[in-house]
From TrEMBL:
The keyword Protein biosynthesis does not apply. GO terms for biological process: L-amino acid transport. It comes from Ornithinimicrobium ciconiae. InterPro entries: AAA+_ATPase, ABC_transporter-like_ATP-bd, ABC_transporter-like_CS, BCAA_Transport_ATP-bd_LivF, P-loop_NTPase. This is ABC transporter ATP-binding protein. It comes from the Bacteria.
């Protein structure tokens, strides 16, 4: 008998991923009466990291917020084939869509441990072993007020809160923003380990981090998805990155 083979996500001719945990089609979203997402199609691959890229203000954060139901949206959003486009945020989270917001949103006055406790989702297993294995420092600093942590440490708390619950997919918005190079590397390593247990949609401006982590890339311009395909292929095309991101990336190793 032929052993069963694990199927790998394969990019189709249109650049979409044939095996996706989360799929978005024709997404539109509004903030303060303004249409900030015009037409986004994207697939988050069932394994590894899918990067959501684009220049400032093209709608990356708004796309993620729209998936979470945090801003008004229309279009198709499916999680493992289930329609979640009309669900409120708490239901989307309950179904296993984890969200790590750009501004980290830790509760400053609460301790690190309290920040984790408050993130425990009802009806889910809570993976404290995984979290403390990834972030030993958070155990050591359990009784410290989160507001007194450094930016990098607060980012760890934010990631840990999402990883605590068993997610089907994690949406992570600019986790390395404003961090010193050493911390960028540290966060990158944590993300790599996180992506071994849960597929990730990652908004990230640091293209070296994208190069290190992402298998697939979706690129937005002006609220629209305009490119999807293998991340390495995209990053190795200096003309395309210049046109879509405004930066020219070179061959392997040079971002
Ligand atoms: N609360 C708001 N009120 C008005 N306009 C907003 C608001 N939030 C976002 N926008 C606008 O929506 C557009 C998309 O913003 P969004 O934050 O989604 O882009 P982004 O690609 O994530 O940008 P960045 O990379 O700078 O974080 C921008 O033009 C932004 O100015």
């Amino acid at each position: 008998m032929t052993p069963a083979t694990q199927s790998e996500p394969v990019a189709t001719a249109t650049g979409q991923v044939s095996e996706a945990v989360l799929s978005v089609r024709g997404l539109q979203a509004h903030v303060a009466g303004q249409q900030v997402v015009e037409h986004v199609d994207l697939d988050v691959a069932a394994t590894g990291v899918t990067a959501l890229l684009g220049r400032n203000g093209v709608g990356k954060t708004s796309t993620i917020k729209a998936v979470m139901g945090l801003i008004g949206r229309s279009g198709q959003i499916t999680l493992e084939g289930r329609d979640i486009a009309d669900l409120p945020t708490h239901k989307v989270a309950q179904l296993g869509v984890g969200y790590v917001p750009e501004d980290r949103e830790v509760f400053s006055a609460l301790t690190v441990t309290e920040n984790l406790r408050i993130a425990e989702r009802k009806g889910h297993d809570h993976q404290y072993d995984l979290v403390y294995d990834l972030f030993p420092e958070l155990k050591e600093r359990g009784s410290q007020a989160a507001g007194t942590l450094s930016g990098g440490q607060q980012q760890m708390v934010s990631l840990a809160r999402a990883l605590l619950n068993t997610n089907r997919v994690l949406l992570i918005d600019e986790p390395t923003k404003g961090l010193a190079p050493r911390l960028v590397q540290e966060v990158g390593q944590v993300l790599a380990r996180a992506a071994e247990v849960v597929p990730v949609l990652l908004v990230e401006q640091n293209l070296q981090v994208v190069r290190d982590l992402a298998n697939h890339a979706v690129v937005l311009t002006g609220g629209r998805s305009v490119h999807a395909g293998p991340a390495a292929e995209f990053l190795n095309d200096p003309d395309l990155t210049q046109r879509l991101l405004g930066v020219s990336t070179g061959a392997e190793g040079a971002v």
